[in-house]
Structure to design on (128 residues):
């Protein structure tokens, strides 16, 4: 699984085929979790990030988005087995992907290398 957020938010399977992530709110949830770099984001924070004026059933809608993202990201996961990628943690959710599987993290890591070693500058192009 690969997630891209530099440009359009998208997910690609290991074979390069696109994952249908759903609508704009689904993509916003995924992007927000990517921005957390593996840390848990509380439900309240996600609701506040998604809506300027949250609807009465915002938490329910968020749970629906997360459930749909889980189905999209792990289509072969048997029912009632814990998700591996988009996990519930405490009062929120976290995205568990290696840094090299997320474009923005690859770019950040390449930038750190390029600052230390000018010979690593071409890695920035590859990361983008």
């Amino acid at each position: 699984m690969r997630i891209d957020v530099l440009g359009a938010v998208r997910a690609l399977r290991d074979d390069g085929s696109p994952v249908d992530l759903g609508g704009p709110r689904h993509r916003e949830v995924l992007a927000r979790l990517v921005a957390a770099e593996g840390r848990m984001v509380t439900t309240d924070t996600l609701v506040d990030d998604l809506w300027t004026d949250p609807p009465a059933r915002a938490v329910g809608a968020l749970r629906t988005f997360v459930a749909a993202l889980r189905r999209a990201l792990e289509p072969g996961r048997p029912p009632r087995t814990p998700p591996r990628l988009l996990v519930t943690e405490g009062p929120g959710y976290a995205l568990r992907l290696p840094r090299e599987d997320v474009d923005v993290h690859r770019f950040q890591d390449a930038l750190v290398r390029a600052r230390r070693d000018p010979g690593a500058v071409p890695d920035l192009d590859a990361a983008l």
Remarks:
- The first strand starts at residue 2 and ends at 4.
- Residues 99-128 form one domain.
